[in-house]
Amino acid sequence: MTGPRRSPRPGTGTWFLAVNxxxxxxxxxxxxxxxxxxxxxxxxxxxxLAAPDxxxxxxxVRDRLRASALTARALVVVGGDGxxxxxxxxxxxxxxxxxxxxxxxVPSGSGNDLARHLGVPDRDPEAAAGRxxxxxxxxxxxxxxxxxxxxxxxxxxxxxxxxxxxxxxxxNERANRWRRPAGSAKYLGAVLVELLRLRxxxxxxxxxxxxxxxxxxxxxxxxxxxxxxxxxxxxLRIVPDARHDDxxxxxxxxxxxxxxxxxxxxxxxxTGRHVGLDAVRIERVRSVAVDAADVTAYAxxxxxxxxxxxxxVLPSALRVLA
Length: 322
Prior knowledge:
- The protein has helices at 27-39, 54-67, 81-96, 113-118, 125-136, 167-175, 183-194, 259-265, and strands at 14-19, 45-50, 72-79, 103-107, 143-151, 156-159, 162-164, 201-209, 214-221, 223-227, 249-254, 280-291, 296-299, 302-306, 309-319.
- By secondary structure, it is of the alpha+beta class.
- It folds into 2 domains: 14-141, Rossmann fold (3-Layer(aba) Sandwich); 152-319, Sandwich (Tumour Suppressor Smad4).
- Strands 5, 6, 7, 8, 9, 10, 11, 12, 13, 14 and 15 form an 11-stranded antiparallel sheet that branches. Strands 2-1-3-4 form a 4-stranded parallel sheet, with helices on both faces.
- A hairpin with a 4-residue loop joins strand 8 and strand 9 (214-221).
- The mean pLDDT is 91.
- InterPro entries: ATP-NAD_kinase_N, Diacylglycerol_kinase_cat_dom, Lipid_Phosphate_FormReg, NAD/diacylglycerol_kinase_sf, YegS/DAGK_C.
- It comes from Kocuria dechangensis.
- Keywords: ATP-binding, Kinase, Lipid biosynthesis, Lipid metabolism, Nucleotide-binding, Phospholipid biosynthesis, Phospholipid metabolism, Transferase.
């Protein structure tokens, strides 16, 4: 999708680092400046782009990347999966216009699931920036598939990790309202609260499987995800074997069960041992349309829109320096 791109000569490029300056009580902004210092060691410039409002930050990033399309080394997102989500949309949009700019990640958020999947050092901005520098000149670029969600009202959103449409989306809704605790502890706490409202959801699906065959089905489930990478919620390894560069997505669901059994099953999501359970279903797909009553979809931990949604994959959409 992105096509070849001529890299700036050594010492003539610019790294753009996008960050929410209020995230982590200023920790993300500190990490952005520490990473920028290391990225400048090769003679390039490094510019930190910051805005507390997500929409304003997206506009700022888009404008600066368009103006520096020929000299931009990469967009480095500093934060969690929400920051990745914001940067991803800009990069996919520019790639569709013939402007191919790589993605770098300095994890500094509460989830960091894409960074975890890609093996990016956590809470260490210099180590993450060093990884980015080493990947810049690798002979075989590493490519990232991107999930795409299209809603009935015409809205479209891209995601890196997974789209959630069920119990896990309700958990995201609650967890995002909490400032503490951080990471998987926050997600676990929200899970325990949402267990009191546990319900079975009746889904209507149209699935295009890995071979291209199309089928329609109804599925009763508690959780349903369309995943591009392996984990959600700060380390829940819902699809441990997911690949980010195979041109496919993973349709993951958990059949209805009582609270007591769910509490026994839930810890296995952190280790991947849930994969062999009879209640768990994982299938590689090219696309899937999902509909259910009173369900709002989330992706990369960000609220999107109510169902129905059609999800497909943009294969090898971006180069990732990770």
